[in-house]
UniProtKB/TrEMBL annotation:
InterPro entries associated with the record: LipidA_mod_glycosyltrf_83, RgtA/B/C-like, YkcA/B-like_C
Protein name as catalogued: Glycosyltransferase family 39 protein
A GO biological process held by the record: lipopolysaccharide biosynthetic process
Gene Ontology CC entries for this record: plasma membrane
Low complexity compositional bias, start-end: 297-320, 551-575, 731-743
């Protein structure tokens, strides 16, 4: 800590000619957290892994990011990250780890980029602390260990930030264009989420660049135009291509990339509007009041019983996941209720907010004495950039109606930047001043330790009392001792300051390791002792940490042998039969337990994850297997069904058709053969009509249909026609086992055959 008092210039000079030895262990920590045991995740997020398998087979599939090898429907995101994953799979072979590797490397790269960005202006110690804080932010490695997009998105935005900072230092227009073009590339990773950083880019360039206003406006206007052009380049090509020459744009209702970008992947995230417009059974999500009332009735008895059984705890958790839009105490996907303190609520705080109080104190210290009219120092200008990144993103997540916990990685760079820059700034104020600014350091330590105790308290049964009490006690003691020893310039004070930072980073470090310790979930990644469940809730409602993905899931056509007491979630009368929430999607009505049932079933979340009870027509995850199959809709195929379909294929393009991607993905991954997800990811895309299906059958493109009762939204007429015009295949020919008790509203699904002349 004593090195913090050195001048930035001296620190920079001393490190020019040698590798920063302090950075080496930080990078090794990041590498361990992001890479260790990714080879055990066999399928990763099966929805996206199936797309990579398909994209490897033809340039047509590669360009459009087709979900299936037949080019029937795309995934629900733009293609850039999946192009990179496909290249990785081409180089290293098709494996779970090879599609995860680009994101893991991006997580490490983000740590290095943040070090470079902070070190130059705030000093080498600030860069080290910022890099370490980034590496240990729990949601960062949790996401980076999957094939979800967000880790690569953050790396790309940090690269754009580096270009912007260089543009300001060199006053070269080319770097401005490069920075905004890079945001356009990020748009083609996750669409409007990439634009969250634009306020920071505009504010910083206006404030920091020493050129005339006329040039500023001209440069920013041109750079913005380039950004927009890059952003919509792929969309324009796709949308201008005839629909019969390309796959349907998955998760859109009008087969349009632009609609997907500004609707499903855009404004709907803010409003929480998850209803499907293309369905003839459209039903909006229930209101918050209705859901809260339903939850109260369902949980009134079980919540009061501290000795409730495991199944009852699972039921309580499932019931809390009912409402799209988050109308219950834990919010949709455990993202809390909208409000100014949402980021401090359970489910979000343990993913991202461990250092937020310290960040707030750091912001106060960094902007202390700043005058509105300037002049501003380089530190103040860059602090303004990180603040303009932090605040809009924090506001969005505080009010948004629909997002997943792992989206919070967008907050990691500014939080880590302020943690690093603030640690040095507050230490300097603590040592050199005797006014209110000298109290910022102990105040930040005390409040941050208090928040961390609050964050850990729901997990006392999992992690024990000792670490919670230890963080609280050490935080209070160190803050008080530092307050008493103000302005005493000796080595003991330096060690106390260093110890305080270690204490504040200890539990985030543990939380960041939980996906390794307990297992992760590649569909809804989160950190914490329940990380394998992908729900980020307290352990009392978490799934068994030794299992990942969906517990007890069965492949299509297989039977679990479990009794009917393992109740499944059913859609309410008149609602869509969706229930799935892809990598960003949602179902279209409220999932509820069957009437009279005490145990709730499982809500299916492709591209998301699941809760803890059972649902048919998915795939089992064996905890004893050396390969972890945590994709949720992944794990195993029904080999008997696959053998039957392969043997009886008479040249049809598609091995079989099914309602949604849940049943299709594992078969695509295993065989590389086309499997048709008739309704796209969640089964609600209005892709197929009866007349189109008839034409496909007559052409000999498909004849087998596996219907499980899920995902009918937007295609109920097609499902009805299939059932009325097909021959049901006896289950003895394709089911892997028999069962006396069929599960769910449609059992384990039915296989049909249709041939038309």
């Amino acid at each position: 800590m004593k090195h913090m008092n050195s001048e930035v210039k001296e620190e920079r000079t001393s490190n020019k000619k040698r590798i920063d030895l302090f950075l080496v262990p930080i990078v090794l920590i990041a590498a361990f957290l992001n890479l260790f045991k990714i080879w055990t995740d066999e399928y990763a997020n099966a929805y996206y892994t199936a797309a990579v398998k398909s994209m490897l087979q033809s340039f047509h599939n590669f360009f459009y990011a087709s979900f299936d090898p037949g080019g029937y429907v795309t995934i629900d995101k733009p293609p850039v990250v999946f192009w990179i994953q496909t290249i990785s799979a081409k180089i290293f072979g098709f494996h779970g780890w090879s599609v995860i590797l680009p994101q893991a490397l991006a997580g490490i790269g983000s740590v290095l980029l943040l070090y470079v960005l902070i070190k130059r202006t705030f000093g080498v110690w600030a860069g080290r602390f910022a890099a370490l804080a980034m590496a240990l932010t729990p949601i960062v490695p949790a996401v980076s260990r999957t094939n979800n997009i967000d880790s690569m998105l953050v790396f790309t935005l940090l690269l754009a930030t580096w270009m912007l900072f260089r543009a300001v230092r060199t006053v070269k227009f080319g770097w401005v264009l490069a920075a905004f073009a890079m945001i356009g590339v990020a748009f083609n990773m996750k669409m409007l989420q990439a634009y969250m950083v634009l306020p920071a880019f505009y504010v910083f360039y206006v404030v920091a660049t020493k050129i005339t206003w006329k040039k500023k406006i001209a440069f920013l206007t041109t750079a913005t135009a380039l950004m927009l052009a890059v952003s919509v380049s792929w969309a324009v090509v796709v949308d201008s291509t005839s629909a019969d020459k390309r796959p349907y744009m998955g998760s859109s209702q009008t087969n349009s990339v632009l609609e997907l970008a500004f609707g499903y992947n855009g404004i709907n995230r803010l409003t929480g509007n998850t209803s499907v417009t293309g369905s003839s059974h459209k039903q909006p999500a229930q209101t918050e009041q209705q859901t809260a009332s339903s939850e109260t009735k369902q949980n009134s008895n079980s919540s009061a019983d501290s000795s409730q059984s495991s199944n009852q705890r699972k039921s309580s958790f499932s019931q809390k996941m009912q409402a799209p839009g988050g109308g219950n105490q834990n919010g949709m996907f455990n993202t809390g209720n909208p409000g100014p303190f949402r980021l401090f609520q359970k489910g979000l705080s343990d993913q991202i907010s461990w250092l937020l109080p310290f960040v707030i104190f750091s912001i106060v210290g960094l902007f202390a004495g700043v005058k509105f009219k300037g002049p501003y120092t380089a530190k103040q200008k860059e602090s303004l950039f990180w603040l303009a990144w932090l605040l809009p993103v924090a506001v969005f997540f505080s009010i948004a109606g629909f997002f997943h916990q792992y989206y919070l990685i967008m907050l990691a760079p500014p939080i880590a930047a302020f943690a690093g820059a603030g640690a040095v700034a507050l230490w300097s104020m603590y040592k050199q001043h005797n006014d209110w600014k000298s109290w910022l350091l102990p105040g930040g330590i005390l409040t941050t330790a208090a928040l961390q105790v609050y964050i850990m308290s729901p997990y006392v049964s999992s992690i024990g009392v000792a670490p919670i009490a230890g963080v609280g006690a050490l935080g209070v003691i160190l803050a008080l001792v530092l307050a008493i020893r103000k302005q005493r310039k000796n080595s003991l004070t330096n060690y106390l300051g260093a110890a305080a930072m270690v204490v504040l980073l200890a539990m985030p470090a543990y939380w960041a390791m939980t996906p390794i310790i307990y297992g992760g979930n590649s569909m809804l990644p989160s950190a914490g002792p329940d990380s394998s469940s992908g729900m980020g809730g307290p352990p009392s409602t978490a799934t068994n940490s030794k299992q990942s993905g969906f517990n007890g899931m069965q492949p299509p056509g297989s039977s679990s042998g479990n009794s009917s007491s393992n109740n499944q979630m059913q859609p309410p009368s008149g609602s869509l039969n969706g229930g799935q929430m892809p990598g960003g999607s949602s179902n279209n009505g409220q999932m509820q337990p069957p009437s009279g049932s005490s145990n709730s079933g499982q809500m299916q979340m492709p591209g998301g994850s699941s809760n803890n009870s059972q649902m048919p027509n998915s795939f089992s995850s064996k905890s004893s297997s050396s390969k972890r199959k945590s994709g949720g809709m992944n794990a195993e195929v029904n080999q008997k069904l696959l053998n039957y379909l392969t043997k009886n294929n008479t040249g049809e393009k598609y091995l079989f058709a099914t309602t949604d991607s849940t049943s299709a993905a594992p078969y695509i991954i295993k065989t590389g053969k086309p499997v048709m997800a008739m309704g796209g990811f969640s089964g609600s895309d209005p892709i197929l009509t009866v007349s189109k299906l008839k034409a496909m059958i007559k052409k000999g493109e498909v004849k087998y249909f596996y219907l499980s009762g899920m995902g009918k939204g937007g295609q109920s007429d097609v499902i009805t026609w299939i059932k009325e015009n097909s021959k049901e295949i006896p289950s003895s020919k394709w089911q892997s086992t028999s069962s006396s008790a069929q599960q769910g509203p449609s059992g384990n699904g039915t296989l049909y055959e249709i041939t038309l002349k």
